[in-house]
Design brief:
0% of the residues lie in helices and 0% in strands. It is largely without helices or strands. The protein is elongated, with a radius of gyration of 19 Å.
């Protein structure tokens, strides 16, 4: 499972009407997703969709990141 994010320049409209510009010299930029929570289920490998089932729940599905991984 992956999480993808994109970076775009919203300087003209998202930063106080364009008065504050993005300083691209500060790159590379990093992002945090505090309290990010996603629900998923194990794909059966059959069909395009798989209903989530509570009958099969692998141990890793409830695994949380360690402080080192955060």
């Amino acid at each position: 499972m992956n999480v993808y994010a994109t970076l775009w320049d919203g300087s003209d409209w998202a930063t106080t009407g364009g008065r504050i510009k993005v300083n691209w010299k500060l790159a590379p930029f990093t992002v945090l997703f505090p309290d990010f929570n996603i629900d998923g289920c194990v794909w059966s490998g059959i069909g395009l969709t798989t209903p989530c089932s509570t009958s099969y729940k692998p141990k890793w599905i409830d695994q949380k990141l360690t402080l080192r991984e955060v």
